Amino acid sequence: MIPNVFHFIFGLKSVPQKLHLVHYLCLKSCIDVNNPDKIFFYYEKEPYGKYWEKIKNELELVKVQPIRILNGKKIGYAHQSDFIRLAVLNKYGGIYADIDTIFIEKMPKWLFEKDFVMGLEDLTDPYAGLGNAIIMAKAGSFFGTMWEKNIRSQFDGSWNNHSILYPLKLSKEYPKSIHIEPQTSFYKHIWSKTGLKNIFVDIDDNLNGVYSLHLWEHLCWQEYIKKIDEDYVMNVDTTYNILARKYISCE
Fold first, then answer.
1. Would the pLDDT of 1 be above 60?
2. Model pTM?
3. Which of 6, 66, 182, 184 has minimal CB crowding within 10 Å?
4. Is residue 100 part of a domain?
């Protein structure tokens, strides 16, 4: 069985970062929806701020030292996270999630019986593959071990060859070693202009079969996420705000 423990990574930038409301709501929704046995929070520089103070006692804090150069190329914080998440899942098992996620429905028990789980990014876009914003894995799974064995050689400095395109390729070589969820499960609204608008402007009232939404923070921080605060969540109806406000109002 995949253990009901969650892994999050934050604080890999060069200076400490304030924990934003969106990050807090990710962790809070994870606790309320999934009732995890533990949440491990990996960081190099500990976050700060009122939301960090509200949530940190719910977490198991783990300080890490990420790799910074690979194959002669400098590695930014996002790619550093790619290597950490895979190593953690292979060692301990559980569920990795990006911290710009909001959880909606508890994942069904039968998913925990799989060895390795990823969700499809069902697009014709050449950058689409298997999303790594949610990964479920047993410790020492075959798929996770093979991915970690080859991830360094697959790293070419591009955004996602090693982290999204390569696991898709690997899944075709070893299809029985991975379970692939449809896009609806984790990425119903993708990173396109329309997808982001569906999350942050419009209202999607049909979230059947959606376990979580990824917010694509790295693409829409300035346009959408930066302005989100408690007042905005509580008073402006959008797909995200309607999902998120329950985790503010129940405080």
1. yes
2. 0.94
3. 182
4. yes
